[in-house]
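Researcher: Here's a chain I'd like modeled. Treat it as a single chain, no partners, no ligands.
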Amino acid sequence: MKALSRTTLPFLALIVAGCAHVESTPSASNCTPTAENNRQIVLAFYHQALIERQTRAAFVRYASEDFVEHKTSVPVGTRAATIDFLESLIKEAPNPAWEVVRTIAEGDMVFLHVRFTPEPNAPAYAIADVFRLKQCKIVEHWDVIGSPVKEQRNPNSRF
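Model: Modeled as a single isolated chain. Structure tokens:
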């Protein structure tokens, strides 16, 4: 099994959060940009991009053409560069598992708190993904990643 690189694991924040499948996601053509609709769009994006591993199709459907990625390891931070980078990262992930622990949607912003394990029985990463939407399309993404904990001194879980 190939180990994931230091630049790979942090970027997985973009790909790991999508455990929820949304049955009726508003499309941009018939969508009212509410916080709840934005939340549904982000969750549907993750489902298609990650669980179904249809990254390019998910970006075409849910992200604007002028999408901005704030991850420094993505060249130029464009939608095309993010798609290419993400597709290559998905190939490196042996058997990832993700669980959206909680979501918060407020106005045009959606926050996901995620438990991510890159392979079965691996220690979990804690991930915070933040998305901004405009007219029911994802236009920006930021993330914050907490590496697996070596020693749990605090009795309260990160999740």
